[in-house]
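name: query_chain
kind: protein
chains: 1
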Amino acid sequence: EDKAKKMGIEQVKLEDLIRRSDFISIHTPLTPETKNLINAQTIAQMKDGVRIINCARGGIVNESDLYQALLSKKVAGAAFDVFEKEPVDPNNLLLTLDNFICTPHLGAATAEAQENVALAIAEQIVDYLVHGVIRNAANLPSIPVDLLPAIRPYLVLAEKLGAFGAQVFEGGLQKVSIEYRGDVANLTTTPITVAVLRGLLNPILEDSVNYVNAPVIAKERGIEIKETRMTDAGEFTSLIVLELQAGKSVGRVSGTLYKRKDPRIVSLNGFPLEVVPEGYMLILSNLDQPGVIGSIGNFLGQHQINIASMQLSREKPGGKAISVIGIDTPMSAELLQEIKTLPHILSAKQIKL
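structure:
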């Protein structure tokens, strides 16, 4: 919010944006919440003659509904570089319209992006020639071969922590602080940090983020990265603590390795947990009151959603609590909104790892 004010940007709700805009340019990830975000209902709320641009992901705009709106001239024009089916079907009806244009999805081919990549390559060559350090290798993180078996499980854990944090915590990411505690602090942590960044950025940019470009993308987005090491990991042998700052909001998530190989999330904003980070998960914040867990279970059962795992934690009896529920099938955006209306539920998110 503060950053938006400094840049002179007015923040509004989605409904207001749709009603007021002459041009709507979409730059969001494709999630259960954003799938078919632009459809016949939302288009009906737009100004006559609105123009729609989708440079994000196919599926955010319902293509059939957009086709009808372009035919009727409710939408004056649209431009896409992504489609529900990739590569685009030659028989897609949108391609028959004069008021629709499309281009390939080649954002990385801009002059600015190529210049930044060139600078990064030059810096890495200097590192190798002067210091003998290989950074950002194309086929694996820059890890000595003899250390790779010890570091590989931490790469998996770090990427899971990043992806978990990116989907749970809201807001424009400004600062990432990574604490390496215990045994992991004695390892080469640079590739582990890259794995964290890849996990953080992948839910936003999806398949365009890899171990090579993750640090470059983070720098381009103005994200500050801070690493600290300490020998004390408390009750754990090793611990990675990730702190994400977005404006005035700060979120913390911690992870460790079970039996030195299996990733576990062991803390979320101070709530102790033991979560296997995989598949679809519901992250619920609720009041610690009788019947809450039963109502959640009944709700999921009524909608044929099977619970694969459940972890609960609370700050004190009757206080705030969180529930991390693994589910076998994803929940629709409508059901996610509905579960928020259950008694004593404060918030609900769905993530995928």
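note: The chain has a mean pLDDT of 90.
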